[in-house]
Write a structure and sequence with these properties.
Blueprint lengths: L14 H29 L24 H10 L4 E6 L6 H9 L2 H15 L1 E7 L10 E5 L4 E6 L4 E10 L11 E6 L3 E7 L5 E8 L7 E5 L15 H24 L4 E4 L16 H6 L15 E4 L6 H18 L16 H7 L1 H30 L9 E5 L7 H13 L8 H6 L4 H34 L1 H10 L1
Antiparallel strand pairs: 1-12, 2-3, 2-9, 4-5, 5-6, 6-7, 7-8, 10-11
Helix pairs in contact: 5-7
């Protein structure tokens, strides 16, 4: 008699899995300081290095902040509005919309894009959702502070991923306990720290996809650097620090030279004393409304004057120079960073200065759109147990980053329809007119209802004509004429 022992999932990580976890954790911790530095500049929390020359010790605690990194990054992110997912062949895309709405992707996408611009990358993790198996697949955006991916440059795909986060609520764990999630091509492993100092496996999701269910949304990739780079470059950080030091210099100058210095020549000591002979403080002497000075022994009146006050115009010009340099780094119009001139720019000039920003937005849309499409294909794969057909391509729908006026969009669309390039009832026409995905769906519903009513009215008219042709009065009248 042969007894077969069922194969049970490992409750501890194998040697290969443990080596992979250690390698990925080292990679994640190595980059965390650089990521946190970019985050500090974005939040205005960076420590500006003091040169130790012009700042007195009493003002060492003074901290000036200039929000140019946030303005530059958010100006680009605000033009990346993901609106919908659809099949490229025009088939019904309700299943894609259901997955996207279940994961709140149209709101979460803005957070993912912002992190990708600040940190240089963001990760989209795909899972099976709740344990009951009836819920849609789970797509979550994960910060690179807590996640990393091992990349195969030849295949252009991930081979393993690791996420370190707080323990999920359904796992009985202690307070502030951390957990690891190891993503492999055949399974997803969740671990908690064990009492022996290692990692104890609490769940293994055997999905057998053959690919790692993690997508990296990289920013500013290069062929030798697929990880991505932040929009907060070393040049941006350097100019930000320089501008903060100029602002700090203006604060120091306001403290020391804001009030003009005065001088008195030929005055006696009694002019700076109270009635009882007590010497007045320098501040009391300076703010005195009336300064009574007696003539000296020779009958001469002491001379009083003041030095010229500090003029901050020179420093403000330097800050304006930094603003122009920063605008070239971010591709922003200078007025977005607070730089203004006596002659305001015209509307056409403003649109021309936004051309670089629009082009950068279009490049990010192409790159990020590919990541969202891949994540959606993985979600369908997890739901159906098999990959979608390669011939069926998923498209992402984005709002126009150029932000043209409504009148300009409508005018261009009308001209294309009048020229016969676009049919008037096409969904592409509605998209070019600037309508959002929700508005386009409502227009399609209105058209269907209008078409239905037109068909019913036509059928009713045909039925009435047929009844009139068959009525006895008409038949007798025709017979009498014959």
């Amino acid at each position: 008699m042969t007894v077969s022992i069922p194969e049970l999932p490992l409750v501890y990580l194998s040697d290969d899995e443990l080596a992979l976890v250690n390698l990925l954790r080292a990679d994640m911790l190595r980059d965390r300081w650089a990521l946190q530095l970019r985050d500090a500049y974005f939040n205005g929390e960076q420590l500006v290095r003091d040169l130790g020359i012009s700042i007195p010790p009493q003002l060492k605690g003074l901290h000036t902040v200039i929000g140019w990194p946030r303005v530059g990054v958010e100006s680009l992110e605000e033009r990346l509005d993901l609106e919908a997912f659809r099949w490229a062949d025009g088939a019904d895309s309700s299943e894609l919309t259901e997955i996207a709405e279940a994961n709140d992707l149209f709101d979460e996408s803005s957070l993912a894009h912002l992190d990708a611009l600040v940190y240089g990358r963001e990760y989209l993790a795909v899972g099976s959702g709740d344990l009951d198996g009836d819920s849609p697949p789970l797509i979550s955006a994960e910060s690179p502070l807590d996640m990393t991916l091992m990349w195969d440059a030849r295949l252009r795909m991930g081979t393993a991923a690791l996420r370190e986060c707080a323990a999920d609520s359904f796992i009985e764990s202690g307070p502030e306990e951390r957990m690891l999630v190891l993503y492999l091509p055949d399974q997803t492993v969740m671990c908690l720290p064990s009492e022996s100092g290692g990692w104890e496996v609490v769940d293994r999701d055997i999905h057998n996809l053959g690919v790692v269910p993690v997508v990296r949304m990289a920013n500013r990739q290069r062929t030798a650097d697929r990880v991505g780079k932040s929009e907060i470059t070393p040049e941006v950080m350097s100019i930000t620090d320089a501008a903060c030091r100029r602002l700090m210099g203006m604060e120091v100058a306001a403290e020391f030279f804001g009030a003009p210095q005065r001088y008195i020549l030929g005055a006696s000591e009694s002019a700076f004393q109270d009635a009882d002979g007590t010497a007045k403080s320098a501040w009391e002497t300076y703010i005195g409304r009336v300064l009574a000075l007696e003539r000296d022994e020779d009958g001469q009146v002491p001379s009083v004057g003041e030095f010229a006050a500090h003029d901050p115009t020179g420093m403000t010009k330097i800050v304006d120079l930094y603003a122009r340099i920063m605008s070239s780094q971010f591709g922003l119009p200078p007025h977005m960073l607070g730089y203004t001139t006596d002659n305001p720019a015209s509307a056409d000039a403003i649109r021309s200065t936004e051309a670089k920003l629009v082009k950068r937005s279009e490049r990010r849309i192409r790159r990020y759109g590919a990541a969202w499409q891949q994540a959606m294909r993985l979600a369908l794969w997890v739901r159906d147990g098999e990959p979608p057909e390669k011939t069926r391509r998923i498209e992402t729908v984005w709002r126009n980053p150029a932000t043209p006026t409504v009148a300009a969009q409508a005018d261009a669309t009308v001209k294309l329809v009048q020229a016969g390039i676009l049919p008037a009832d096409s969904d592409v026409t509605l998209e070019m007119a600037g309508l959002s995905e929700g508005q386009r769906q409502r227009v399609r519903s209105d058209r269907q209802r209008a078409n239905g009513r037109a068909v019913l009215d036509r059928l009713a008219a045909l039925g009435a004509a047929d009844d009139e042709a068959r009525s006895p009065e008409v038949v007798d009248g025709d017979a009498g004429l014959g």
